[in-house]
Amino acid sequence: MYDPLYHVAPGPQAAPAPSYWHAHTQPLWPSTSAILPATAEVVVIGAGYTGLNAALELAERYQQEVVVVEANDLGWGCSTRNAGFAMPGTGRLGYSHWQTKYGEAVAQAIQHEYQAAFARLERHQQACPEQLQAQLGGYLKIAHHPRTVAELYRQYERLVHYEPATSWLNQADIQTRVRSPNAYAAIHYPQSFGLNPLLLLASIARQAAAANVQLVTHATVTDWQTMPGGAYPHHLQTSRGGIQAAKVIIATNGYTPNQLHASVHGRTLPILSSVLVTRPLTALEQQSIALSPRELVMDTRTLKYYFRLLPDGRLLFGGRGAVRGKDAEHSRYADRLLRALVATFPTLQDLLLEPPAYFWSGWVAAAFDNYPRVYQPADGVFTSMGYCGAGVTFAQLAGQRVAQLAMGEPLPALPFYQTPLPRFPLPRLRRIAQRLYYGWYGLIDQIPLSR
Ligand SMILES: Cc1cc2nc3c(=O)[nH]c(=O)nc-3n(C[C@H](O)[C@H](O)[C@H](O)COP(=O)(O)OP(=O)(O)OC[C@H]3O[C@@H](n4cnc5c(N)ncnc54)[C@H](O)[C@@H]3O)c2cc1C
């Protein structure tokens, strides 16, 4: 599998992920092009949620001539591989962090920004004939061990100030909704919902094409030279030929190759996140776990597990994947996830008798200080990345914001928009640090599973 730290670039003919979404969805795709124009006012690299939202905004609001170059098929990266948890927020930091560091007004403004992201997601839902196959009912953040209940309750007390509709479930309550030995209490976030990520990607792509964005697929950017002075200083070489641009938006996120542009090198850590989908559960199996297809669940582990019941009765279960791309498809990672699923729901132990129906992985981008940035890394170059695995909702707005930045508009005075992504110290050692992190938190998080 492509590995951003080792390979020059993804594609241009990499197969789509072997995902449940790809096997069970027939979205209506817009036309794409095999021919690159010689020039464009803006070239967007990467056709995921970020790149397509940026392109849509640039064409629709600013009437820019926009070309999106994508290494493989539209949405080949995370945007068609994710679990479809649409939640308010991004990164790994909560309101209490923002409140302590920047004050109450900034924390409130961040809450408003998350609501704006939801509003843009709703626009894409309305533009989708299948309404994204939304499963409305909210998200449960569950304490996976008694020692995490008190901290989760403290989070709830602070959270309810910003999101008053959230509610607290004690152990008896949560056991009626997630019948698991690893569920001791929970916060319920009613606004969140489950969606089909492939339908979402196709909805944005159709809107972008309708706004005259030119979508060029299987066009991997392999070289980038800057010649200051002219109208089109950025000269990009792709597998479909060359194109010159006045401005470039880098929307490659966790798939950003090391050599793409020096200004973004070493500022994110690509981490593999993996998902399995089981065969459809029997009615008895579904009853035994008490999980509703309307609710999304994630736990309080540092290396989190998350799950949801799909409309056809299959269980989707996700967590961390391998460290290196070359190991991503090894069966031991699917086995490990399956064993975690059965530890969460022991009544489903028959699932261990066969490999999961679907298993796939994708690269999410971790930021050194745990939150993304929309910023200008170099002259005429703009980017939005580092969502730390929480981009389904936020990327919709971040794409819009990076387009506004490229057009010289001021952005809201929020931490996401005021500084560059910090560089990882000793970027070459990122993988070693990641292994140590996994080893340590894997041990701590294992305690409740092996009780
Ligand atoms: C298994 C998994 C589960 C997830 N679940 C959730 C979830 O439930 N909820 C949530 O909020 N988030 C989730 N995420 C994260 C979420 O999917 C991402 O944050 C989001 O999709 C990022 O979108 P993006 O457009 O920024 O990047 P991507 O969708 O990754 O797009 C980047 C694109 O850049 C292209 N590219 C890279 N290099 C080049 C090049 N040189 N030339 C041309 N093109 C290039 C790639 O081909 C790729 O298509 C999950 C991620 C994974 C992997």
UniProtKB/TrEMBL annotation:
| Pfam families in the cross-refs | DAO (PF01266)
Which UniProt keywords are given for this protein, alphabetically ordered?
A: Oxidoreductase
Q: Name one GO cellular component term.
A: cytoplasm
Residue ranges constituting the FAD dependent oxidoreductase domain according to the UniProt record: 42-405
Check the UniProt entry and state the signal peptide residues, or none.
none
Which species does the entry assign this protein to?
Pseudidiomarina indica
Give this protein's Gene Ontology molecular function annotations. Answer: oxidoreductase activity
Record's keyword annotation contains Membrane: no
In Swiss-Prot or TrEMBL terms, this protein is called Glycine/D-amino acid oxidase
The keyword Transferase appears for this protein: no
Q: Which InterPro entries match?
A: FAD-dep_OxRdtase, FAD/NAD-bd_sf
Q: Which PANTHER family match?
A: FAD DEPENDENT OXIDOREDUCTASE DOMAIN-CONTAINING PROTEIN, SARCOSINE DEHYDROGENASE-RELATED
